[in-house]
Design a protein that fits this description.
The chain is an alpha+beta fold. 51% of the residues lie in helices and 14% in strands. The protein has nine helices and six strands; from the N terminus they run βαββααβαααααββα. The strands form two sheets. It has a four-stranded mixed β-sheet. It has a two-stranded antiparallel ribbon with strand order 3-4. Helix 1 packs parallel to helix 9 (199-212) and helix 6 (134-143) runs antiparallel to helix 7 (148-156). The chain starts with a strand and ends with a helix. Residues 5-206 form the DSBA-like thioredoxin domain. This is Nucleolar protein 13. One of its GO terms (molecular function) is oxidoreductase activity. It holds the Pfam family DSBA.
Length: 214
């Protein structure tokens, strides 16, 4: 059995990756483990801002037609998954969220980290909750199986692992300028996919690693 690490460098989640891993989890030849690497698209982003207003001004240059077209396009992409995105709510700097994800990944393992990330982005994209707010993070931690008292302690101590995560963000940013980036480690070679892909693309990459592991 070959153990392959799937490194997911992200500042947004790619739901297709989770589906692809689920499809390949029964492979008798390769075991795939998801590992999260942090990346900030906007490292200087303020702690809180109105999502609609910020995107309209910063991403679409105050062009409401362009913003509506973008939102329609994104919903079309997610429609096959039964997901309708919510573009309302607040957004803000994601450093705090990355800090909690990295801590849980290190202390609780990949399964808890994966559930935590899934919970965070469901709350942000579907429920319009702030991605780094304390209550958002505590809820997602508890949903991932973390005890409430422990979740509140880690979320509340904003200096815990903050220095290490800032350094990791700097290191990752030296090699990555767009996300998501997915690297599937293989016995002969690694397979890298950049940008959001469909399930079949991730499955193909993992099938390549399985084939070359024999």
């Amino acid at each position: 059995m070959y153990d392959s690490q799937v490194t997911f460098t992200f500042d947004t989640i790619c739901p297709w990756l989770e589906q692809a891993l689920a499809q390949m989890s029964s492979s008798p030849d390769v075991s795939f483990t998801l590992h999260f690497q942090p990346f900030q698209l906007f490292p200087d982003f303020p702690n809180s801002a109105d999502k609609q207003a910020w995107c309209l001004h910063e991403k679409h240059l105050d062009n409401e037609t362009a913003q509506l077209a973008y939102q329609e396009h994104m919903n079309q992409l997610f429609e096959p998954l039964g997901i309708k995105l919510n573009f309302e709510g607040r957004m803000g700097n994601t450093l705090h969220a990355h800090r909690v994800v990295q801590h849980m990944q290190e202390e609780k393992g990949p399964e808890v980290a994966s559930k935590l990330v899934e919970g965070l982005y469901r709350r942000y994209f579907l429920e319009a909750k702030h991605p780094s707010a304390d209550d958002t993070l505590v809820e997602a931690c508890m949903e991932a199986g973390v005890d409430e008292a422990e979740a509140k302690e880690i979320v509340g101590d904003k200096e815990k692992h903050a220095r290490e995560v800032r350094q990791l963000l700097r290191n990752v940013a030296m090699d990555v300028d767009a996300v998501p980036v997915v690297v599937v480690e293989g016995k002969r070679r690694d397979v890298t996919l950049t940008g959001a892909k469909e399930v079949k693309d991730y499955v193909k990459a993992m099938e390549t690693v399985i084939k070359e592991s024999k």
